[in-house]
Amino acid sequence: MTGQGSSGNVVAALASFFIPGLGQLIQGRPFAALFFFVLSGIMWIFFLGWLIHLFSVLDAAWYKP
Questions:
Q1: Sign (positive/negative) of CA torsion 10, 62, 56, 60?
Q2: Which phi and psi angles does 28 have, rounded to 5°?
Q3: Residue 61 is inside which H or E element, if any?
Q4: Apex 15 CA angle, 21 and 34, nearest 5
């Protein structure tokens, strides 16, 4: 059974903590991964990149297939 709190989501959340979008890529969601990676990169350059980065981690942790 996969879902919130499963070990797969914990690994994905940890991966997204280090590289935004990597957790989504591990979960098999390439478009979400690209979205978080690009948006986080743009936001880190301009403003509040940490907020998008944090949301990427939470999205990977809360994902339910």
A1: positive
A2: 85, 25
A3: helix 49-62
A4: 10
pLDDT reported for residue 30: 95
Mean pLDDT of 3-8: 64
- CA 1/CA 52 separation, integer angstroms: 28
- Give the DSSP per-residue string, 18-59: HSTTHHHHHTT-HHHHHHHHHHHHHHHHHS-HHHHHHHHHHH
- For 48, the token pair is 């509040």
Give every CB contact of residue 5 below 8 A, 6+ residues apart in sequence.
none
Residue with token string 């907020």: 51
